Amino acid sequence: MPIFMNHPRLAARYRLMAVLVWMCLLAWGAVPGFAEHPATRSGELRFAVAGDIMAHESQLESAYDETCGCYNFQPVFADVMPLFKEVDVAIANLETTLPGKNYSGYPAFGAPDTLVDAIQSSGINLLTTANNHCMDKGKDALIRTLRVLDEKKIPHLGTYASPADYNQHHVFLLKKNDMTVALLDYTYGTNDIPIPEEVVVSLIDKEKISQDIASARKQKVDAVIVLFHFGREYLNSPDAFQREMVEFALEKGADVVLGGHPHHVQPYQKRTVKDQEGRETQRLVAYSVGNFVSAQRKPYTDGGMVLYFTLVKKSDAAGGGTLDITGVHHKLVWVYVESGPRRKQFHILPVESYLAAQKPQLKPQAQTAQTAQTAQTAQLKLPKNALLSMKQFNKRVEKVLKAKVGPAPKQPVAGPEKELTGG
Ligand SMILES: [Zn+2]
Prior knowledge:
By secondary structure, the protein is an alpha/beta fold.
């Protein structure tokens, strides 16, 4: 104990100084337990958006492990972990149900719960469920799917176990890094399977979208993201319905509109627009991010993209704020189906790092720090034909992404009636 502690006035000053030093340390975040995660930046949210997670019959067969009588999907997602490491929010669309039994692929999708464990361990931390397959196994499976996602603590939006659940949760508020972002998820339909009144599937409906965006805005959110499951399948550019709905959502106040369902990647665009007060602000539109994983092998369907963007809150002197959308870019993923002695194995592979690491001219001594890193993520040695297919996918899709998108139709158009094939 310092000797001046015996002197009452000096002791009081000492205590005051100690308190001040402690408060300074707290303010600097220097006290263990109070420091923020180094990658976390206040007023910024980094997103990665992956496509449709399908679970076709051959994927279920390949995940089945007869030694435990269980399903293991971990190898499918093992290679994509680096894609989600640097983001705050990684979204994908769960295009199957979790019925707990009677698993099957197309046309009535139902996968084992362990699919979600593998999705989660890849780093994906938010799932959308409003899609044309959410009613495939009936209302009990729809409810069970949501319960399993809750049990596994992975947030979700788009389908709801009851009207009360819908009312409470359908404007999904994401609060992180001192930002609040509202997410809204809609599907064009449920493949003509009727939706019983006990459950709610968020359907594309202009009046509802308009109300939902307005209600999100009332809650003083920093941004509104609308997710659509829509469009005609197997097209490289958005159909008239997609273009119409995207413009509608933007007009009603969405900042970001993201799409899926066509099984093909379609173009994305960042736009600079003027808001109601005449300030420049930004919007981001992605018509379709394509598949994330499926057993589809036709050109364009054998992979998809992960779209990245960062929402940055900019406050002005008057206390208002605008939104910056920065870091918009994509990374393609391609699904490799490895043939094994007993069964196939599906792998989602990051295209860029695989092509960089498996260039024949890449000798170990010629490796830079960057190529060494990509080589680390590329662990599988692809056979020649697989590497060629991946290259073709890359070339095709990059070309699609450069194409221009036509304007929205002047007259409203109807959504797709039925899906064609495959999922
Ligand atoms: Zn779909």
